[in-house]
Amino acid sequence: MRHFPAEFADLLTRRGAALLAGRHPAAGALADPRCRFLALGGLVDARQATAAAGLLDRLLLPHLRPMVQPIPPETIWEETRNYAERLPKTMRQWTAHLDNPRSAGFRAATEAGLIAMLRSDSYRAFAAALAGARLKRKYGLQALAYGAGDYAGPHTDHHPEEPEAVRGYFDMHVSCAGPGLRDQYLVYAKAGHLTEMTDVAKSGMVTAYRLPLWHYTTPLRARPDHEGTARRWILLGTFLYSDPADGQGRRPAAAQGAR
Asked: Which among 13, 84, 125, 229 counts the fewest CB atoms within 10 Å?
């Protein structure tokens, strides 16, 4: 792949096109208050997603910045009571925010056609089809890259200081994985326990979240002899609900009909 297509729909399989049209069983699933996370394969063409990972390696990788937040030592040595641990969000990964036209990462993503694809009508419509809700037209874009050993610790992605996000919002991730990955898991909470787990180290996998939600991403494991080159890219869109009540799980009438 030398350039991303102008429309996100051009990366979709028949099943992905069916979801875009509202004819897939997952359409509107996240409007149900009992459902806060989906991991779906077979919607984005896996070969094209793998080719996209190669394109991102060539054009965007040099412009990523590290996001490294280790466990603070004081979480242990300043603790004064047994079992009173408080773990802040920890992580090790690489990122490029794609909302700043003056950044080198934005310019590289524009050159690759990535910005145009992620701003296409079909990308936003695909997210809305998963969310089962009306989403605001303005949304945030980010590229993340996990290498061997990179991870994100337990966190909720709750933003109580942001008036528009305090009652919830919607994230959609598209994975573009290069060769050499062994596995990486997304663990998330159900009924108050971190019991649910799915392997996300698959090229073309789409994951969708109705946030906030307790979850974490395990360290990426590479196959032997690929520790330095194995990489999973995530193309991330962050959407606010047009009606903030949808973040609380109110099921819109349109989503009821789709189900």
From this structure: 84
Among 132, 148, 157, CA closest to 212:
157
Number of other residues whose CB lies within 10 A of the CB of residue 222: 22
Overall average pLDDT of the 207-218 stretch: 97
Q: What distance separates the 2 farthest-apart alpha carbons in the chain?
A: 57
Structural domains for the chain: 8-68+89-258 (2.60.120.620)
Instruction: Supply the pLDDT for residue 246.
Output: 83
pTM: 0.92
Report phi then psi at 125, rounded to 5: -65, -35
Task: Please check the confidence at residue 256 and state whether its pLDDT lies above 80.
Answer: no
Tokens describing residue 234: 């995530």
Structure tokens belonging to residue 240: 């606010």
Q: How far apart are CA 66 and CA 60, in angstroms?
A: 13
